[in-house]
Amino acid sequence: MKKGVLFGVGVGPGDPELITLKAVRILHEADVVAVPASGDGRKTALAIVESHVKDKPLLACATPMLRNKRKLAENYDMVAETLTRLLDEGKTVAFITLGDPSIYSTYMYIHHRVVARGYEAQLIPGVPSFCAVAARLNTSLCEGSELLHIIPSSHESTEAGLNLPGNKVLMKAGKSICAVRDRLAEDGKLDDAAMVECCGMENEKVYHTLRDLSDASSYFSVIVVKEGKE
Question: All domains of the chain, ordered by start, with CATH?
Fold first, then answer.
């Protein structure tokens, strides 16, 4: 029996109208749709594509937010094992993931494990959250020879990233947002920064200045810092 193929399908940042035609086709053709499920049971990616997968078998794949690398690795191994059993049955599996699978996606840890076991796995690009955020803010991310840096603001590299020359995108702000705001204020860049929380989702919030921000934000928060903003 011919083995099935695993597709890591980027479904965009939240707005169902931002799903690509290719992603829709893959979802329609898939035998099984794998759905990432965080520890609190939310299935954000599924909410985006639910109109395209109503008649599909769904496979919930636990993707908990853990700092313990060993437990994370064990979890990814279990998910990969489950997926490869389906591939051995000749089934095509579409694993949905927010934004684009190549940008800070948990899916990639599973993708690498499946490929390492000798199975075919392909990536289906999606609209990255920071592109949707720039559109919502009605601004560009970079023009001419401007540099652009993508920085995970919940990571220890945030400090070094903020010191880089050029425009910056800070992803996954969440609980660290106030610390980032304070750092930008210290650097005199607070008025160069804007943010969208939960871009394209029902609970979307737009901050054209971080001076309006007083509390921690959602994990799905993206800050754009424009050096020498017009």
Answer: 6-124 (3.40.1010.10), 129-225 (3.30.950.10)
The answer to whether residues 8 and 27 touch, using CB atoms and an 8 Å cutoff, is no
Rounded Cα distance, 62 and 144, in Å? 42
- Per-residue pLDDT tens over the stretch 196-223: 999 998 889 999 988 877 776 677 889 9
Dig out the tokens for 18 from the structure.
């931002």
**Encoded tokens for 148:** 């652009």
State the average pLDDT for the chain.
89
Which 8-state DSSP code applies to residue 96? E
Q: What is the pLDDT of residues 129-179, one digit of tens each?
A: 999 999 999 999 999 999 999 988 766 667 788 888 999 999 876 667 778
- H helices within 89-166, ranges in order? 107-116, 129-136, 158-162
In this structure, are residues 134 and 128 in contact, taking their beta carbons and an 8 Å threshold? no
